[in-house]
Amino acid sequence: MPSASTTTDTIAASGLQGLNLSTTAAATVQGTSTANSLAEATSVNGASSGTSSVTYNDALAASGATNNTINADGSGLVSGIATTNSKATAESVLGSSTATAGVVTSSGITDLASLTVDGGLETLGKALNTISATAESVAAAASATSALSGLQQGLESTLIHSGADASLTGIASLLNTATADSAATSSTASSTALTLVGADIDTTTIGATGSLLGQVGFTAAATATNVAGTATATVGVDSSKGLLNSALIDIDAAATLKGLNVGTETAIASTTVGNSTATAGGADISYGIDLHQVAAGAGLTLTAGAQVDSAATASSVGGNSTANAGVGQLVTGMLADDIDAATASLTTQVFLNLDATASSTDGFSIAHAGDTVSKLTGLASGLDLDVLGAGSVTGLAQGTAQATASTVGSAGADLATATVDLTALGVDGLTFDTGAAAILTVTSKLVGNADASSVGVGPALADLTFSATGLKNSSLDSEADATITALASATGSLSADGVAGAASALGDFVAFGLNNTTTNLIVADAIGTVGGTAVISGSLDAATTLGIAIASGDFDATGAAFGSTGAGDFSLDIGGLATIKGQAQATGTVDASSVNANATATSGSLTSGGANGLMSTLIGLSGLNLDGDANGSVLGTANGSFNTTAESVAANATAWSAQSLTGLSALTLNLDGSGLITAIANDTSFVNAHSVGGTATATAQVDAIGLNVASITVGADLSLSAASTISSSTYSHSV
Length: 735
What we know:
0% helix, 43-stranded parallel sheet, single chain, mainly beta
């Protein structure tokens, strides 16, 4: 008769608990804790179950309600390092296998209610977790679960004070893997984590120089393989933050703050007969820095960085495949409320890379890389940055996303769908005041592709939506020079290939270099240079043999847009030489081809064939209301290049393209000195429709305006140049 095998290993460890220390000299406190849990279960005829559980592992923590307090009249050295290993394996030949490995909480230093030293201070809290679950079965289900079910943190404190130089470091590192392998029924692998924090530092005061580092690193992977059943792999880290602060960080001298958060999520599901589902990074939230208030008596150098790579791969021979990467995922470099410093250099960077791949031989394949919620932000809205001297802010949001779906299934339900949907924002809602020169540099960049291929009668759909914005709804007030540079770019390619079914490629591209259309004022008492650039490059291709081919793309780019700050107010107030630029550029290629059915290529609308006056819109510079005390120059350019082609052998071919371009619009200019105004709109459009056995229809509509609506007052010479150039070619050919 079947004989089951069950193993359970449960442990908890702590190096030091409930410390209350007071000394008139120096204090050195070092705590370490190592927890290793192993559970192995094997069976031939019956089920096997291995469970490894670490309830807690802390190097320095509270004892019940007694927190830790350290008071030293001299210097202080406090460290806590917790190392945790939880491993579970389960193997069975004829029965099911279940492996569960988990850690509830782990901390290097936690429950630090008060750490006060009159001298220098060095504090290190580190939590290192390795969680692994492996389940194998030949004739039954295999399930592997590895989980951080609570909080893992390097350093957590309520109050820290140092009378001299201080260095505070908190590190949390997680390696979390789950592997399930079965030849029958099902394979399920799950690797999840609830909360990761590098350093959670509340009220912190430092009498001299201060260096703070909060760092999170995680690698999470789930692999599920099966022969005759389903395969499901799930990976997620719900919340992760490098440096967290909800009170005040006050540093009397030079301050260095770093919050870093780097993670990788990989889900792989493969099976021969059943369905496969792989999910990586669903609804996860990641921050480099999340802080409330910082005050630095001297120079502040702040670096916030977050990078998450999420990849999901699902493959099946005889079933359906679904891969989801980064659906609902949010990654932010920094969220902050208030920063005051003598001088300041802030750098916020965020990277999000999504990869979803689904393949099936006899079923549908669906791959999603991101969705309408998925977003990466360099600097989130709400920061009030006040700098006595010179200040600089650099914000970067860079994302890549690719989705690939392929099937050779013969049924109508055997579709191939690849979707990409991602939003990038460099800097949002910043209030930036400086007593000297101010520099604000922002970049938002998206690159990706969506590829769908179907050999049978099922449809192939490739859908890509990109929205990139450099700088949004921000104000700047500089008592000297001010320089603002904002760039947004969106680049993507789409390919939908069908044989017996329909092929559709849908691409929506939006790029906004500088979007200051709400009540935000930019002031420079001396030289002011402001520039916004938006660049789009999109390529769409839909091709099929027997089905309908549809390719539709919309390309909207705005270099810089401003709004009024109220009745009689200006959106820009420049005391010295003023240089304002807004530049938009878009390149769009849309191709649709079918051998036996209709082919429709549309550029300027997501509605096939165009409708209701919709068109791609390119604007160089709009809404500028500038008051300049000296000379000034204003440049607005919009450049477009579009190629739209539809081809069918046995049916109708329809090609439709529409663009509206404006170099400079809604300008209000008041200069005490001379003025130089340049407005340019250029567009090249090629539309071609070709059919052998049907009707060929080609339609093009292009509007280009160099300068549209302006009120100009200057105190000296004025040079104004406005030009538009359109090169439009439309061809239709039917045999």
